[in-house]
Design a protein that fits this description.
alpha+beta, PmbA/TldD fold, 2 domains, 7-stranded mixed β-sheet, 11 helices
Length: 541
């Protein structure tokens, strides 16, 4: 429906229902705060009385809202809440787990009994006993600092902002424009038999848009999605973004891309912006260095990993320029939290995965360190709902800036004779060992004699994880650092979705294999790597 009809029909009834939902969520959370320690004692005491050597109790509340608009139409408003609890136990070296949305005292006893029974049933076929480290007891509350609670912002305000983005795009010549805004609030309570009682709350938000321009005479079109990443932040993030300016730039770049020459496949130097490189970090470093995947205990979502434990401290994963670190403490990070879902304190647990090119660390959750002769988790456990078992998930994983803070993306481009500067992420693929990959992007600027001179289209870059990172010979300085990330990274069976941020600086890579995606798809293209006149539409040499 159009904006006027939507406002007329929705404002009174629909907005009231959604606002009441979030008010109920706050009241339920306050009730848990008042009684959590007493509630936690019930399943924990029952589990230990039945023989559990360890037990923890989780309550999780998740509120989510997603808004969708296209041109001046509101396509959908989705508001959801979940609230429930779980008990996890370790009995004779085997895990047991049970969950329910019933938080009555009787149900909590039954959950503990069920979890213990499941653990005992596994004793006959487990490969090896689970060994967990003893964790310190923590008692505290952590709340992510935000300026504006997005769930307290009127729906009319958020919808109006999305429709304004679409109007700016179509007013600049886009044929179509769609926009969206998603927001999630997680509240978690954790208690365990080590003595911890922890309450945490965090918010994340993801605005985005995509424009399409068409040429009916040639039956062609081009798209460009926004570069704005999701963030661990409040509504102020969306409020302060220049979404209108980005929508207009997206139209301009989509029009230029539509008439740009198709790239000639071959080896070229690449300068990759953080808006594209974050996804490459995610797929070629983040997932391969999950210890459960490297050990073969996790194979969902693109298999196991080439990066096996025998490669620790020996594999030259990248050039000496490459240091990629992991943390749960980054400002506005999607994985930022004070304690992971095992109850491990995250401050001080920052670690390098790749240090000056050498592979140094895996991501680990409770009970995994012993697999490789190490002593403790590095705070990488997460469950995406109250009914999900906490598994090893990525913290924020980021490429560190180069040592010279003055280096800009223009400096990196100036060092390229013939190549491409890539912005924005798009489709990707990777093999079952997280080794051979292919990535595309949103915008591909031609570099010639150290300058940007127009665009290419139909570009993808290809390689393997080790050769690619070893080809890195230049990084932007600290001022060029940007935080990208994924709102819903998939892993596990049953599948779970986790938020994760990846910071990066612009990086230069030498002689990377570039594909022509149109040729690969079997379409005939007119390819040219010739010079152009600085990017003016429709004028190419």
């Amino acid at each position: 429906m159009n904006r006027r009809d939507w406002m007329k029909r929705t404002t009174a009834a629909g907005l009231s229902l959604i606002a009441n939902r979030w008010q109920r969520s706050m009241a339920e959370a306050a009730s848990v705060n008042d009684h959590f320690i007493r509630l936690a004692d019930i399943p924990l005491n029952k589990a230990t009385s039945l023989g559990a050597s360890f037990a923890d109790f989780h309550i999780m509340q998740t509120d989510s809202e997603s808004l969708f608009a296209r041109e001046q139409m509101v396509q959908g408003v989705v508001a959801e809440s979940t609230f429930g609890c779980s008990v996890r136990v370790l009995v004779d070296g085997a895990w047991g787990f049970a969950a329910s949305d019933d938080r009555s005292e009787e149900s909590l006893v039954q959950l503990a009994e069920s979890a213990v029974a499941i653990a005992r049933a596994q004793g006959g076929w487990r490969r090896r006993p689970v060994e967990i480290e003893i964790l310190p007891a923590f008692n505290g509350r952590w709340e992510q600092p935000i300026e504006v609670d997005p769930f307290a912002v009127a729906l009319e305000e958020k919808i109006g902002r999305l429709l304004a983005i679409n109007q700016a795009a179509t007013g600049s010549g886009a044929t179509f424009c769609s926009s969206h805004l998603s927001q999630v609030r997680e509240r978690k309570w954790l208690a365990n038999t080590f003595g911890s009682h922890i309450e945490q709350s965090r918010v994340r938000i993801f605005p985005g848009a995509s424009v399409t321009v068409t040429d009916p005479r040639k039956n062609e079109f081009a798209t460009r999605a926004s570069f704005s990443p999701p963030r661990g932040a409040g509504y102020e993030y969306f409020r302060d973004l220049d979404c209108i300016g980005d929508a207009r730039l997206a139209v301009e770049q989509a029009r230029e891309k539509m008439v740009a020459p198709s790239v000639v496949a071959g080896k070229l130097d690449l300068v990759i912006a953080p808006s594209n490189l974050w996804l490459t970090i995610h797929e070629t470093v983040g997932h391969p260095t999950e210890l459960d995947r490297a050990m073969g205990f996790e194979a969902n979502y693109a298999g196991t990993s080439f990066c096996t434990p025998d490669k620790l401290d020996t594999l030259r994963y990248g050039s000496e320029h490459v240091t990629i670190g992991a943390d749960r403490t980054a400002l506005n990070g999607l994985s930022t939290i004070a304690y992971d879902d095992d109850g491990v304190e995250t401050a001080g647990r920052e670690f390098a995965i790749i240090d000056r090119g050498v592979f140094r660390n895996f991501q680990m959750a409770l009970g995994q360190a012993a697999w490789i002769g190490r002593t403790s988790s590095n705070g990488c456990a997460y469950a995406d709902s109250f009914e999900a078992f906490p598994i090893q998930r990525m913290p924020n994983i980021s490429l560190k800036p180069g040592p010279d803070p003055s280096v800009t993306v223009q400096d990196l481009i100036a060092g390229v004779e013939d190549g491409i500067y890539i912005e924005g992420n798009n489709s990707w693929s990777i093999d079952q060992q997280r080794y051979n990959f292919q990535f595309t992007g949103q915008v591909f600027h031609k570099i010639h004699h150290g300058k940007l001179v127009g665009m290419y289209r139909d570009v993808a870059y290809q390689g393997n994880s080790v050769d690619f990172w070893n080809a890195c010979d230049g990084l932007g300085g600290e001022k060029t650092y940007e935080l990208g990330g994924a709102f819903n990274c998939g892993k596990g069976q049953p599948g779970q979705a986790a938020p994760v941020s990846h910071g990066a600086v612009p990086a230069r890579f030498r002689q990377i294999n570039v594909l022509n995606t149109s040729d690969e798809a079997g379409n005939k293209t007119v390819a040219s790597n010739g010079n152009c006149n600085g990017g003016k539409l429709g004028q190419w040499g």
